[in-house]
Amino acid sequence: MPLNEKELLERDAKRNIDEELLQAVRDLKAGKVGRVTKVEVSPLAASRLRIGLSQSEFAKLLGVSLRTLQEWEQGRRAPSGAAKSLITIAIKKPDVLKELLAA
């Protein structure tokens, strides 16, 4: 059964929040984490990061809107046509796009 407001205040008055936070940091550093969340990055986003471009810069290079690029990276939409070809190059040969940007 949930605690009422008075019970919550009484419980919290007995807590040492500073020590709890410090112990949580110690546990984290020691690898005593209860839950680890892995975030999988799409191949497109990974390639963009390897090239060193922001989403805005990469979208401009591909000739698409920022929102379109975000939807591709998040897997909600799939690119087609010329954008698909450029993305394939970005994934397989990111240095080629870096070279194009430098020119």
Brief synopsis:
The chain contains 7 helices and no strands. The chain has helices at 5-13, 17-29, 43-51, 55-62, 66-73, 81-92, 94-102.
Key traits:
103 residues; mainly alpha; 434 Repressor (Amino-terminal Domain)
Provide a descriptive summary of the structure in words.
The chain is mostly helical. The chain has a domain at 43-102: 434 Repressor (Amino-terminal Domain) (Orthogonal Bundle). It is built from 7 helices and no strands. It has helices at residues 5-13, 17-29, 43-51, 55-62, 66-73, 81-92, 94-102. The termini are far apart. Residues 44-97 form the HTH cro/C1-type domain. This is Helix-turn-helix domain-containing protein. Keywords: DNA-binding, Transcription, Transcription regulation. InterPro entries: Cro/C1-type_HTH, HTH-type_reg/antitoxin, Lambda_DNA-bd_dom_sf.
